[in-house]
Amino acid sequence: MGKVKIAIAGVGNCAASLIQGIEYYRSSANGNKHREHLGLMNYDIGGYFPEDIEVVAAFDVDKRKVGERLDIALKAKPNCVLPLHNGVPKSRVRVEMSPVLDGLSEHMKDYPADRTFIVSTAKAANIEKILKTSGAEVLLNYLPVGSQKGSERYAEACLKTGISFVNCIPTFIVSNSEWAKRFEDKKIPVIGDDIKAQLGATIVHRNLAKLFSDRGVTIDRTYQLNTGGNTDFLNMLNRSRLESKKISKTEAVQSQLAERLDDDNIHIGPSDYVPWQNDNKVCYLRMEGRGFAGFPMNLELRLSVEDSPNSAGCAIDAIRCCKIARERKIGGPLTSISAYTMKHPPKQIADTEARDLVKKFIQGTCPR
After folding, report:
1. What is the distance of C-alpha 213 from the center of its chain?
2. How far apart are alpha carbons 222 and 260 in whole angstroms?
3. Which residues contact 331 (CB under 8 A, 6 or more apart)?
4. Rounded to an integer, what distance in angstroms lies between the CA atom of residue 18 and that of residue 219?
């Protein structure tokens, strides 16, 4: 079937987890058959397997990464993702300088260098030229939360070069009707916005919310508080960068309820940055409601996950679905896989239904 060639904007923890994971499944395909399906929602997507994904271009702003081989950059600070045993082999890709734009928050400079970004003085690369010469078919947006201008810059580059855009961060591109139409007019398949974890805080919260609703239990109030120690959590200490993030996470839960909660009765968002947690994310969730005859009940849950590999479990499917959509000449937002893997898709669909639609899309019986 050939390769699925991708470019990555933002060589942080999420990129490191994804690329390590690709190598993990490559080694599985070469003899460790007992684990080839481990941790995957879909092993085979249209004849493409995890090991068929190849990174051909990468962009970042940190001087410890720009100009370095990709395999070296993935291990550079402030990355703190847990390493996999087999690691990443020597790469032919060099990390290019990304335009900074709104990718950095001012408060980051007040933290130690090994926890935050050190911006390179290199000249920003010609994104369109690199995408064209690399042969990339799909670009993953892993810029920091709040990078609206940065996301739009890469989206424009994709429109100019015909490359698919998978928007993994909470900037509204694919779910924005004007952007969506531009990609549809160009017949470029896109997926977004704001990637879900494979099994994380939001996916658990929204499914519990749907369970309450399906079982006739009225939810009166709920919160989701998250702590973590990676650069994403440090970046989100600047609350001004969180507007779209809070909308995305809140709507992912509200969409599963028969009746929306008042804004005062639902709180979903990051709580604090705890440096020693590194890439570990801890979620504290509470739901209060009333069941039969109005009798009260409540649920409390604590979830601990490695944050970045959790998103890679969804990204690896989104990439391959983009590839088969390109082969089928489908343009615009891919509704099924966006609903299944993203918090703020163009159309919210219950997860079980979205999963069935993705299966049908892969088989070719669901158009998008």
Report:
1. 27
2. 12
3. 183, 184, 185, 186, 187, 188, 189
4. 36
Angle, CA 16 vertex, CA 227 and CA 19 arms, to 5° = 135
Pair 346, 190: CB distance under 8 Å: no
End-to-end CA distance of the chain: 21
Summarised one tens digit per residue, pLDDT across range 349-359 is: 999 999 999 99
pLDDT per residue over 300-312, tens digit each?
999 999 999 999 9
Compute the distance between CA of residue 271 and CA of residue 236 in angstroms, rounded to an integer. Answer: 9
Beta strands in the chain (DSSP E): 4-9, 53-60, 95-97, 138-141, 164-167, 189-191, 218-228, 266-273, 280-290, 296-306, 332-333
- Residue 154 corresponds to which tokens in the numbers above? 């890469």
Helix (H, G, I), strand (E, B) or coil at 209: helix
Cβ–Cβ under 8 Å, residues 227 and 272: yes
- Is 17 within 8 Å of 311 (Cβ atoms)? yes
Residue 323's identity, in one-letter code, is K
Return the bridge partners of 283, or none: 226, 303
Nearest to 201 by CA among 250, 242, 237, 261: 250
81-100 pLDDT, tens digit per residue, is 988 867 899 999 999 999 99
- Please give the distance of CA 66 from its chain centroid, rounded to a whole number: 22
Cβ(323)–Cβ(138) under 8 Å?
Answer: yes
Q: Specify the residue for token string 């969180």.
A: 242
Q: How many CA atoms lie within 13 A of 236 on its CB side?
A: 23
* Length in residues, the chain: 368
Q: Are strands 280-290 and 218-228 parallel, antiparallel or unpaired?
A: antiparallel
DSSP structure class, residue 170: S
Count Cβ atoms below 10 Å from residue 341 Cβ, excluding itself.
30
The C-alpha atoms of residue 353 and residue 299 are separated, in whole angstroms, by 25
Amino acid at 218: T
Nearest Cα to 63, choosing from 122, 8, 107? Answer: 122
pTM of the predicted structure, to 2 decimals? 0.95
Q: How far apart are CA 306 and CA 85, in angstroms?
A: 16
Question: 47: how many CB neighbours lie within 10 A of its CB?
Answer: 13
